[in-house]
Amino acid sequence: MAKPVDSDMASRMASGMASRMASGLKIRATLLEGRLIVAVGDITRFSGDAIVNAANSGLLGGGGVDGAIHRAGGPAILADCRTLRATTLKDGLPPGHAVATGAGHLSVKRVIHTVGPVWHGGSHGEPELLASCYTSSLAIAASEGLDTVAFPAISTGVYGYPREKAAPVAFSAIRDFLSDHPTPSTVYLVFFSDADADVFLAAL
Ligand code: ADP
User: Fold this and answer.
1) Of 51, 87, 181, 183, which is most buried with the most CB atoms under 10 A?
2) Whole-angstrom Cα distance, residue 107 to residue 144?
3) Is the separation of the CB atoms in 93 and 115 below 8 Å?
């Protein structure tokens, strides 16, 4: 059973300002009985079982975190994406769905690509699609036995999803999945800046 948010206040305060470094990332808070870690840094430096990519439907690379992951991981990730586009995903990956590839030079076994919704005001299914990104990615992690998985803040960059609105959607989707599944044991939410992590923590 996941703890309710309020009872996580103590552990959040305990970690407080005394940030720890792990996996090349700064730890800002530990929630859900240690199973959800809020961190700050470059997700391409994460060392664990998998990172999630905020991809676009074409799967052939883009800007933001997508570009960073392909640059750091090298051409093997793009080669896997091209194979997917030539076989099972001829029309691309729809928003809310996820698919895994190899991870090239990254310090993880797999990259899980998911396509977030573009923000169109919030009444076009955006929250459901964003939740589905987290749930679909976690389902792949569970089925492949990937125990430590790091997510970026999907859709909150170029796709324009307001950070304070994305926060409770991401948190609820992760909490609900973890309450039903032992794997992954630990999920990292990796924000690019302390300010972004602050917005997430304040919005819970
Ligand atoms: P989207 O198209 O889904 O909005 P973006 O890549 O534009 O995807 O942005 C998603 C989030 O990833 C943004 O909050 C952005 O600040 C963050 N981001 C960009 N590069 C990195 C990185 N190297 N590590 C972690 N987060 C990153």
Assistant:
1) 51
2) 17
3) yes
Can you tell me the distance from the alpha carbon of 21 to that of 177, in angstroms, rounded to the nearest whole number?
26
Sign of CA dihedral 84, 86, 89, 95: positive
Beta bridge partners of 43: none
Whether the CB of 103 sits within 6 Å of ligand 1: no
Question: pLDDT tens, 78-112?
Answer: 999 999 999 999 999 999 999 999 999 999 999 99
Q: Which residues are CB-neighbours of 155 under 8 A, at least 6 positions away?
A: 54, 116, 117, 118, 119, 126, 130, 133, 161, 166
* Ligand 1 in reach of 197 Cβ (< 6 A): no
Residues 6+ apart with CB under 8 A from 43: 51, 65, 68, 69, 150, 151, 152, 190
**CA gap 166, 12 in Å, rounded:** 20
Positions of the chain with pLDDT lower than 50, given as ranges = 1-19
Other C-beta atoms lying within 10 Å of the C-beta of residue 149: 26
pLDDT of residue 22: 58
Give the residue among 2, 76, 70 at the shortest CA–CA distance from 35: 2
How far is the centre of ligand 1, averaged over its atoms, from the C-alpha of 88 (Å)?
26
Q: Walk me through the domains of the chain, giving residue ranges and CATH numbers.
A: 7-203 (3.40.220.10)
CA of 1 from ligand 1 middle (Å) equals: 30
